[in-house]
Amino acid sequence: MEKQVRKRGRPRLLDRDVGLDIAARLFWERGYEGTSTADLTKAMGINPPTLYSMFGSKEDLYRQALDFSIARESTRRSQILQSHLPAYDALRLYLYDIADGDTQPDKPRGCMVSTAVLQHAEENASVARMTAALREAAIQTLKARFDRAVEDGELPTQTDTDTLARFYGAIIQGMSAQACDGACNTRLKRLIDIALTAWPGELRT
Amino acid sequence: MEKQVRKRGRPRLLDRDVGLDIAARLFWERGYEGTSTADLTKAMGINPPTLYSMFGSKEDLYRQALDFSIARESTRRSQILQSHLPAYDALRLYLYDIADGDTQPDKPRGCMVSTAVLQHAEENASVARMTAALREAAIQTLKARFDRAVEDGELPTQTDTDTLARFYGAIIQGMSAQACDGACNTRLKRLIDIALTAWPGELRT
DNA sequence: CCATAAAAATAGTGATCCCTATTAAATCAT
DNA sequence: ATGATTTAATAGGGATCACTATTTTTATGG
């Protein structure tokens, strides 16, 4: 990650990561269809051609903003999930971390991915497929952790880990929706505590 | 509900309820921001002035289409919930009915209300408040049923019925999101069966 | 200083957005 | 038939949509 050597030509006024951060925040708050390229260029302080030369298109920018945001969160969250904590405890901390992310002060409510682009115009079907794939990947990550829990004897051998992962995925999506509707952090965590009572295994192995 | 007596003037080409049904289906599939007035007028087979004289504005039409759709479902669903079945059994049938609604053949996926207008442009904030209020009302209906269950001794007296209602509300929202992403009916019902294991009371009193 | 390179700014493009002023058509009452 | 009444159709308005051809600015290399 060494600083780029100064190249020829006019220097950039906008750092790429700063631009992605601004874009991610707008898309997060207003959604893909609710955010215009004029909103984006205005918030970044650039003119339209600069946006297109830096990021390609509105859809390309959305994809890059999602990748950028996910990269920032994924390290901490995968550490929680892949730690040597019992699966139940790891899951609890993982869900609490998501609840925190859904209710950050001075940030948009909810999750940028969990409830994004569920309904959409036909022309945005490819954007919807992208967010759906990200949600499916998150569920598969949960399932893999649950499979490990079965191997470790923390869950009954007959556990349907796929459905269990989709159940907690539904909790994550429901929390995002309720955060968008104004739910506070403690309210989401009380909800998590109920969801954790559906855990099929012995607790704290 | 007697048929209206033929009045003076040119007869309507489009029945109001037929128009609302067409509008509801479009809004359901594409969302509020993803559906244009041109989409609506084309699907209804009318010209723009007819849409505005019949329904007022795009936002008014959305509100009327939501009311129209909810009215059709609410009778059956409130019968399920307010029946004399034990609360647990009523809840199970209620959630199964919602799962069926999320995965109807030849209908858009998911629920028209549960995951609608979560992210939105600033100019559509009033539309978002409307759908949020409908979601909150559904949660309060669940809470009221749970409160009755406490009175009937089907739930422990110290049960936090508000959080329990928001938990099952999250399940409903998560199911809608996953249905939008392609989940089938049986997958949603397996998810419900796990959610029901979080029920705090004695089953089948 | 000059040529080259790279990015920014200007000034738009055609398409689509939600909505409406006006005119034409179709019915009923007399 | 005529006038009154109600709805439909025509034709577009002003704003915004995502995007871009062209020109101008600012840097480096020689």
Give a verbal description of the structure.
Chains A, B: It comes from Rhizobium croatiense. Chains A, B: Residues 36-55 bind DNA. The structure is a homodimer of 205-residue chains. Chain A has 205 residues and is mostly helical. Helices cover 64% and strands 0% of the residues of chain A. Chain A has helices at 16-30, 37-44, 48-55, 58-82, 87-102, 125-151, 161-180, 185-196. In chain A, helix 5 packs parallel to helix 7. The longest helix of chain A is centred in the C-terminal third of the chain and has 27 residues, at 125-151. Chain A starts with 15 loop residues before the first helix and ends in a 9-residue tail after the last helix. The mean pLDDT of chain A is 95. At the A-B interface, helix 1, helix 6, helix 7 and helix 8 of A face helix 1, helix 6, helix 7 and helix 8 of B. Chain A binds a DNA duplex (30 and 30 nucleotides) through helix 3.
Unreliable stretches of chain A: none
Largest interface summary: A-B, 48 and 49 residues
| Architecture per CATH nomenclature, i.e. the level-2 architecture of chain A | Orthogonal Bundle
Whole-number mean pLDDT of chain A: 95
Structural class of chain A: mainly alpha
InterPro entries (chains A, B): Homeodomain-like_sf, HTH_TetR, Tet_transcr_reg_TetR-rel_C_sf, TetR_C
DNA-binding region (chains A, B): 36-55
Pfam families (chains A, B): TetR_C_13 (PF16925), TetR_N (PF00440)
Keywords (chains A, B): DNA-binding, Transcription, Transcription regulation
